[in-house]
């Protein structure tokens, strides 16, 4: 392969990831080969192997492009708006995550992970989904625990119960929306549902 500039190599890598998104979404992960991806990108398999060890490596690189850890979103909000309490911060972080998920690339990749990815040798979608869910749930739990310690939750709601309520609502909304994105706006309708849940668990002044 001829020597390329760093910018050219990065552009090639991004084009291969774009192609992988398209083909994974169309065929499903297990039925997609690196040859399919190379052809879709107008390249050779050699170009794919130049950037990725195998299909699993390419798949995880595709996921990394749309990573949006809830803790990072919360940290960003806290840095910008230091006077917000834990419940307002968590609510805004959830709405921001919904907004990010509605972006075309993020929607495509999460649809692949949730609905177009079957278990193969180096890719276990259930394990990936469980890890992401566990990380999200722990962040939510810490926020609700802080809110409880500050007397912001109603007495009837324990932090672990509030965590289960919000995490279940987020999971259900995202799952349903990814199956039929045209059926409702995740940011608007989903955001309204989230607002109502926070109203239910928050101690009113």
Automatic annotation (TrEMBL):
Instruction: Give the signal sequence positions.
Output: none
Q: Which domain of life is it from?
A: Bacteria
Gene3D superfamilies xrefs: Tetracycline Repressor, domain 2 (1.10.357.10)
Q: Which GO terms describe its molecular function?
A: DNA-binding transcription factor activity; transcription cis-regulatory region binding
Query: Which residue range or ranges hold the HTH tetR-type domain?
Result: 10-70
Q: Which UniProt keywords apply?
A: DNA-binding, Repressor, Transcription, Transcription regulation
Q: Which residues bind DNA?
A: 33-52
Q: Does the keyword Ribosomal protein apply?
A: no
Query: What is the name listed in the Swiss-Prot or TrEMBL entry for this protein?
Result: TetR family transcriptional regulator
Query: Upper lineage ranks?
Result: Bacteria, Pseudomonadati, Pseudomonadota, Gammaproteobacteria, Oceanospirillales
């Amino acid at each position: 392969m001829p020597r390329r500039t760093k910018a050219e190599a990065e552009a090639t890598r991004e084009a291969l990831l774009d192609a992988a998104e398209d083909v994974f979404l169309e065929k499903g992960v297990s039925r997609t080969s690196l040859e399919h991806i190379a052809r879709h990108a107008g390249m050779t398999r050699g170009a794919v192997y130049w950037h990725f060890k195998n299909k699993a490596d390419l798949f995880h690189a595709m996921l990394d492009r749309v990573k949006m850890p809830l803790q990072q979103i919360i940290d960003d909000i806290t840095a910008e708006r230091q006077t917000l309490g834990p419940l307002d911060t968590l609510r805004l972080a959830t709405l921001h995550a919904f907004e990010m998920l509605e972006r075309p690339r993020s929607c495509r990749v999460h649809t692949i992970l949730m609905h177009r990815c079957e278990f193969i040798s180096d890719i276990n979608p259930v394990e990936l989904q469980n890890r992401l869910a566990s990380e999200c749930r722990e962040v939510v739990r810490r926020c609700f625990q802080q809110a409880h310690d500050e007397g912001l939750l109603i007495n009837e709601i324990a932090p672990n119960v509030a965590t289960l309520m919000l995490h279940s609502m987020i999971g259900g909304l995202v799952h349903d929306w990814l199956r039929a994105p045209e059926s409702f706006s995740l940011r608007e309708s989903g955001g309204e549902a989230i607002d109502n849940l926070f109203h239910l668990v928050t101690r009113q002044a």
